[in-house]
UniProtKB/TrEMBL annotation:
This is HAD-IIIA family hydrolase. Signal peptide: none annotated. It comes from the Bacteria. One of its GO terms (cellular component) is cytosol. It comes from Acinetobacter lanii. GO terms for biological process: DNA repair.
Length: 222
C-alpha cells in the first residue's frame, strides 16, 4: 500500500523563486571582473549545483581564482537581487499545502548565506520545517541533502515529493528513490526533465499547485 504524502521538498531558484535571470547576470559580471568568458547558456546550465561545483565547471582553467570569483558573484547577487521574488502563486501554494498539514522543506544549490538572504527577503522561514543548502552538505545530484531532510522529519522517501526545475533536482531524487515533479518554467527543458520519469512536468505554478494537491489527496484517500 502506498504511503500518504507528508513532505514536499522544493528547489529554490527557478522553482519557487524567479531568480534565474539575476543569477546569470551576476555570474557573468563576476566572470568579466577576472577576464573569464562566459555565455548566458553556460551560466544558466549550472544553476542548481553548489558554488564550488559551479566554479569547477565554468572556470576549470583558473582554480586559483575560484574563491574570488564566487565571492564577487555572491556580493553582486545580494546587491542586485532585491527585486527578485517568488513566482506568481507560490505564496498561496505553500500556505495551502501547509494548511493541509503537509511539511515543507527546501533543498537548494545556494549557499547558506544566499538561502538565508532570500528566506528573510520573502519572510518565509516559518513555512519550512527544514532547509538545506549545498554549502553545508553535498551538492546535487548527490542525495545527501534529501537524506538529511528525511532524517530530520522521520519520514521515508516514498512519503515525500521533490519538486525542481533542473536535471540535478530530479536526478538527486532518483538517486534516493523519491517521487518527483519537474517544472519547465525554470532552467531545463521538459525533454531533459523527462529522462528522470517524474510524476508530472508542469508549465506554471498553478499547474504545480494542482498537481501537488492531487498527489496529497490521492494518497490520503488510499
Amino acid at each position: 500500500m502506498s504511503k500518504p504524502v507528508e513532505l514536499i521538498i522544493f528547489d529554490w531558484d527557478g522553482t519557487l523563486f524567479d531568480s534565474v535571470g539575476q543569477i546569470v547576470t551576476s555570474l557573468k559580471f563576476a566572470a568579466e571582473q577576472f577576464n573569464q568568458p562566459l555565455s548566458d547558456e553556460a551560466a544558466q546550465s549550472i544553476i542548481g549545483l553548489g558554488l564550488p561545483e559551479v566554479a569547477q565547471i565554468l572556470f576549470p582553467n583558473v582554480p586559483e581564482l575560484h574563491d574570488q570569483i564566487l565571492q564577487c558573484y555572491g556580493d553582486h547577487y545580494v546587491e542586485h537581487s532585491k527585486h527578485d521574488q517568488w513566482f506568481e502563486g507560490v505564496a498561496e501554494m505553500l500556505n495551502d499545502l501547509k494548511s493541509q498539514g503537509i511539511q515543507l522543506a527546501v533543498a537548494t544549490g545556494k549557499s547558506r548565506r544566499g538561502l538565508d538572504w532570500v528566506l528573510a527577503q520573502t519572510k518565509s522561514t516559518h513555512l519550512f520545517e527544514i532547509t538545506r543548502a549545498a554549502s553545508e552538505t553535498k551538492s546535487k545530484p548527490d542525495p545527501l541533502m534529501l537524506a538529511e531532510i528525511l532524517e530530520h522529519t522521520g519520514l521515508s522517501a516514498d512519503q515525500a515529493i521533490m519538486v525542481g526545475d533542473s536535471s540535478y533536482d530530479l536526478e538527486m531524487a532518483h538517486n534516493i528513490a523519491m517521487p518527483k515533479v519537474g517544472v519547465s518554467y525554470g532552467v531545463h527543458t521538459p525533454e531533459i526533465l523527462s529522462q528522470y520519469n517524474p510524476i508530472a512536468i508542469v508549465d506554471n505554478v498553478a499547474m504545480l499547485h494542482q498537481t501537488l494537491n492531487h498527489q496529497v489527496q490521492q494518497k490520503q484517500a488510499v
